[in-house]
Design goal:
Elements lengths: L1 H21 L4 H10 L1 H20 L8 H43 L12 E5 L6 E8 L2 E6 L4 E5 L4
Antiparallel strand pairs: 1-2, 2-3, 3-4
Helix pairs in contact: 1-4, 2-3, 3-4
Amino acid sequence: MNRLKKDAKIIFLIVTFIIASILPFIDYLVIIEIFYLSVPLALAFTITSVFLVINLIDKREDKSKVFAWCFVPVFVLAQFLSTYAVDMVQGFRAEYLINEIERGLQETDEFPSTVKSSWGIEIKKSNNPNAFTVTYSRGFLVREVYDSKTKSWKSYGWND
């Protein structure tokens, strides 16, 4: 029975991690979290992190309370970890697509028709010849946009 409880706790933390990793990319849930839950979540994160550290440092054998203090820190850290990881991966993938497009533009002097955008990366051809934009979401309502005219990336937040 004790093994079953331990497995259920681990599964619960894994599911929490997965849900928290997806949450920053669902716009209406991010709005709720930022405008209504940011202060309570910050307080809960601080309090549970302190109690988690205290329970981990405590020399007593009973570590059953550690799980109770893991939920909020896992939830918050998973969100930041997922936005960092997605930004890195999508950034590399977007740079690869940009290089492919620019190579095609140099070879044929027209926008290549065979470039397929990766999942989560949007490519738009501009009205200006040989100009395009590449866009992907970093999470928490932030988009990264590459403009081929200026050859630079720019971040756009929720109010830009």
